Amino acid sequence: MAKSKISKKLSLDKKKSERLTILARINRYEHLSRVEKSRLDDFKNLLRKQAIAKHVVIEQENKYLEAENELHVYKSQLEKIESEILSAKEEYHLVTKLFKNEILDKIRQTTDSIKLLTLEVEKIKIANRLR
């Protein structure tokens, strides 16, 4: 039971670590997306003034869309990992509760055994006095 509890805790910690990695990537792609969008807007203004070619705007639009797509992928991964973290927490708490109940049962059994042995000792003492 203790091994199961430890493995559940390790799994939970791993998922939390994965979550941090995903959050860092989301932060990176949110920033990148804003930068690429700003550049795209600038390029569109330059295109209207006929200062750059249309293919340059299209290339920039592709960069922006790639950043947005990556951002959506990582946000989706974040939702998934958060769901997995919730499940891992529930499993960990369940295993912890079962482990606690198992130990409490052993304590009760040991206490009952001590009571029975104490009664046996008292019976033996009484029997020895009567001899």
Largest sheet properties: none
Number of domains: 1
Shape: rod-shaped
What is the percent of helical residues? over 70%
Number of strand elements: 0
The run of helices and strands is HH
Rg (C-alpha, Å): 33 Å
For the terminal residues, how far apart are their CA atoms? Answer: 50 Å
Mean model confidence by pLDDT: 95
Q: How much strand content do the residues show? A: under 5%
Judged by helices, strands and strand pairing, the structural class is mainly alpha
Catalogue the unreliable spans.
none
Number of helices: 2
Keywords: Coiled coil
Protein name: Hemolysin secretion protein D
Coiled coil: 57-91
Question: How would you portray this structure in words?
Answer:
The longest helix has 77 residues, at 54-130. The protein has helices spanning 2-48, 54-130. It contains two helices and no strands. The model has no long low-confidence stretch (mean pLDDT 95). It has one domain. Helix 1 (2-48) runs antiparallel to helix 2 (54-130). The chain has 131 residues and is mostly helical. It is rod-shaped. Residues 57-91 form a coiled coil. It comes from Vibrio parahaemolyticus. This is Hemolysin secretion protein D. Keywords: Coiled coil.
